[in-house]
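Running this now, will post back.
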Amino acid sequence: MMSDNNNGLVQPENKLVLRAVVGLTEHLPKADLEQITIQAIKAHRRLRDQAEARQNEWHAIEAGDPSGKTVGAARIAYVTSMIDMHGQQTVLSTLLDVLGYIPSFRGD
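Update: finished.
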């Protein structure tokens, strides 16, 4: 189900929006908000890559020791990385909503 927000944009009702991020950024000049959003995109990509690396480490260790007595440090590192990545995704999603578009930029 979708609903209109104050700007007339249609948003999913269950979408998580960080009000603090909206409040901090909604009156910034577009050029400044674009730079912040680009930094958030880069941070999200870095965290995504880190989480993928942690997942690969965890699977490699698990394949060598399938006892399953504990999830182990590698899986905990993976879960922590995923939490960080998903938190950053929420920040990025909110910034993109405030900006209103996906900024283009060169490089990662």
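The chain has a mean pLDDT of 87. More later if anyone needs it.
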